[in-house]
Prior knowledge:
Helices cover about 25% and strands about 30% of the residues. It is α+β, with helices and mostly antiparallel strands and about 280 residues long. The protein folds into 2 domains: about 60-110 and about 200-275, FAD/NAD(P)-binding domain; about 110-200, 2-Layer Sandwich (D-Amino Acid Oxidase, Chain A, domain 2), CATH 3.30.9. A hairpin with a 3-residue loop joins strand 4 (about 70-80) and strand 5. The two termini are about 25 Å apart.
Amino acid sequence: MGLKTRMVDAGEVADLIPSLNPRVFVGGVFQKEGGVARHDAVVWAYERAARQLGVEIFPYTEVVDVNVESDKITGVRTTLENILTGVVVNAAGAFAGQVAEMAGVNLMLDVYRLEMIVTEPLKPFLDVALSSPHFLAYMHQTARGEFAGGAEPQNLSPFLGLKNSRHAVQNMAHKFGSLFPGLRGAKLMRQWVGIVAKSPDRGPLLGAVDGLEGFFLNAGWGGYGFMGSPAGGRLMAELIVDGQTPDAVHPFNPNRFKTGQIIVEPTIIGAAENGV
């Protein structure tokens, strides 16, 4: 796909991340052009660009129903007003399953709670973003020196709650301390929780829904929607405007669970995969 990604041995991993515990790795995959972005700033930029194009945005407005007549989308009812439309894109993240049910569609999505921590500012020691499939963890260091990361416990169960848990903090502290011994003793500055929706094979659901004209899905990304949203949004726009499904969207068709053509993606980090 044109990505500059290559395998690296243990020696190169040590050169790239000298602070990483040499006992926990034997090699890795390196993407030189990869990086991190501030999620809030990205959303604000998309909002500004959308408004310049004439897009109307209604913050703090809940969708309470999706109107369907004769197997066609006819509108959306919100807490603010009723919107007449023949096209609805369900990109509701963790709430995509609830929105789909309003239109009479079952997406078979499970909702999981993921937690993150941020430490006090520290002397720079991590120049790259790092993920560890073995520890089910992902992390980077911010421009202010804060270590930010998340890690999923083994056998993660679906859960909707947004309250922080001691178990998750202990799990992350143990894993990050094992990866970076120099982190032990660092002060925890903040912690937060987010919820995501995952499909049965952990791949996103992209495309039109059979039997319901005008209803499109861009959902089920799990914890990877931020990375996939630019390409996913462009591809969905092409599908809706042109009426043709782009080649890159075909494998993520929502009907794949009926045909058995599920997605096998071993590089996705997720504790729920242990039981699949």
